Amino acid sequence: MDYFVISLLNGVVYGLLLFMVSSGLTLVFGMMGVLNFAHGSFYMIGAYAGYAIARVTGFWPAMVLAPVVVALIGAAVERWLLEPVHRHGHAQELLLTFGLVFVIEELAKLLFGPFAVDNPMPAELARPALQVGDIAFPAFKAFIGVVAAAMFAGLFALLRLTRAGLVVRAAVHRPDMVSALGHDVSRVFMLVFALGAGLAGLAGAVAGVFYPVSPNMAHELGVIVFVVVVVGGLGSLPGALVASLLIGLSTTFAVGIDATLGDGLRTLGLAWTMGGIFDVRLSSMSGAIPFFLMLLILLLRPSGLLGERA
Amino acid sequence: MTASVAETPMAAPPSRSRAIGVALGSLLLLVLPALATDRYLETATRGLIASLFALAFNLLWRHCRLLSFGHAAYFGAGMFATIHAMRAAEAGSLDLPLPLMPLMGLLAGAVLGLVCGALATIRTGTYFAMITLAISELVHSFGPQFGSLFGGESGLSAMRMPWAGFAFGDARQVYVLVLAWALAGAAALWLFGMTPLGRTAFAVGENETRLRFLGMRTHAVKTATFCASAAASGLAGALLAVANENVDYSIFGGGASAAPVMHTFIGGAGTFLGPVLGAVLLTGFGSIVGQATRLWLLYQGIFFVLVVMLAPGGLAGLVAAGLRRSADGQAAKALRATALVLAGALLVTCAVVFAGETLSEVLSDAYSAARATTGMRFPPVERLGLAYSPLSLPLWAAAAAAFLGGVLLLRRAMRP
């Protein structure tokens, strides 16, 4: 039971972290029709920025400054790199962001070295936050969860309760119409892109407390985040939330399950000795679960769990 | 329909200059073993493999407008199948001569491609790209699990067994074997475009909805094209397995999937041989420049981004445009554009290399040591045969000016 509660908490925290990154990705896709391959790179830049700024200003100011820096980088990328390529079509935009992933990864290696940097955790976050039976739930995970929840509330309020949010939501669905109504859609694009990058940067800065800050983190999380937005439905924010939690929980629980597919069949009475895929432990396959889920969704419900665009 | 499925006439260079180019290239490939040292022959072998892989990748894009970001899965499948076959031959349980080993890779790529292609081509556009990426990540995540199949961290090794008096011990014989298969593969991919299936696949890329109205089973066409592309990728992987004699599961990672994408779009996806240009250029440069600097991957990435931004047709597109202009009697204009491109590229290269190398030197351990021994905060950098202060304002200003000026020149040259 204790194990179940802790896994639930861990899964929710990981899911919320995924949502922080995927929300920006899905918003940008909804508006521009472009899946930004480099979105995971913004997450990585956020982690490195948080690490570098924290060495100068201390931990807490860095958590505020790092997302701002990443948002500015995002705005620059949109204005000077993505926008000029827009007229060549979606494939060219996809290729551009694909190339940026490699440039940003190599720049990170150049500036911070090819291995994980030593990112010290502030003392406030290093102690346990609450105790479930014999297992302690650490404060930094609670911190990640609180920041993600606050971000979700803020984003929801921004999109649902403000006039700017109304324009953004309209531009997601009918950019041409919004433009015809006199809004500067390309400016809205840039701001949303910057916002999305900033959110990914915030996620990176916060996650850098716990996860190793290395040049690999962009690729590792970036691919999972693609899975999240496809499963949730490209362009759907609620879908991204549901899919994030689904994937966060399923991978977290799978890590703790030490059974094999063969065990499952044997309990059903299909008892014979099997090899290959039937003898691989579920816990060691937890990394593959998101991709199975994605293939399943694409076959059964191609527009995603809550997506509307086919 | 025949008009719309014809090769995109804008992108292709005039047929006479293309014929001359192909003839010269083939001649060079044939005399290379007599001229080059072993090291260059090994680079040429890898260039041939990369070319075939890029051509296979571009089959899908050029015909069906499908962008795959996960072709490493089929390349890797070809490698593993061939290594397993070679090991079986070594143990005496399989009687297949080495020159026919690549067929195993072809087969493995085709089978995996048929299954994955049928799944992936249900969708098009961004979704298709995502599915191919997810499939290759899935295969990659299997890598550490199945020890007997993938050989774990250390991978699997095999030996090239002698056949009919050939020992396949030196780089020359391996080169000839790879060359023969790569040429056969490239010819097959070229001929694919001539078949009714290839023609229909072109039409799918142009307007799939319309084809479906005509009663075509477009999903079957896309699956078949995907299968052909995966089979050729598997063949390319098999050739690498024969050349390297070992493989491990890291081949399923993102780097191997990115290579054909970069090669294809730097070389030019609009023409058949564009990907070959990109693959040969990047493999050659990688082998030469990769020894001189740690930053080759960074430069390659920046090069790719610049080509995507400034020359959507790739290098082959530039060459084709120049040749077309001079064929139209605008030779002076073509020469001017070429000069602008070369000058712009030179300026941008100088600026990027200066910035990259200086930064990498300042951040290196050797520089920290120099800082400690000289007692200076920023002792001079010795790089590129020069010694200069890393904070020199004129140098950085010159680099920034060269970069901006170079990009402006390039943009000007691209204007029609």
UniProtKB/TrEMBL annotation, chain A:
Pfam families: BPD_transp_2 (PF02653). It is found in: Cell membrane. The keyword Transmembrane helix applies. CDD domains: TM_PBP1_LivH_like. Signal peptide: none annotated. Its main location: membrane. It is a multi-pass membrane protein. InterPro entries: ABC_transp_permease, BCAA_transport_permease. Keywords: Amino-acid transport, Cell membrane, Membrane, Transmembrane, Transmembrane helix, Transport. The keyword Membrane applies. The chain crosses the membrane at residues 12-38, 58-82, 94-115, 135-159, 188-211, 217-234, 241-262, 282-300. Belongs to the binding-protein-dependent transport system permease family. LivHM subfamily. This is Branched-chain amino acid ABC transporter permease.
From TrEMBL, chain B:
The keyword Transmembrane applies. Keywords: Cell membrane, Membrane, Transmembrane, Transmembrane helix. InterPro entries: ABC_transp_permease, LivM-like. It comes from Siccirubricoccus soli. The keyword Cell membrane applies. This is Branched-chain amino acid ABC transporter permease. The chain crosses the membrane at residues 46-61, 66-86, 98-120, 172-192, 220-243, 302-323, 335-355, 393-410. Signal peptide: none annotated. Pfam families: BPD_transp_2. It is a multi-pass membrane protein. It is found in: Cell membrane.
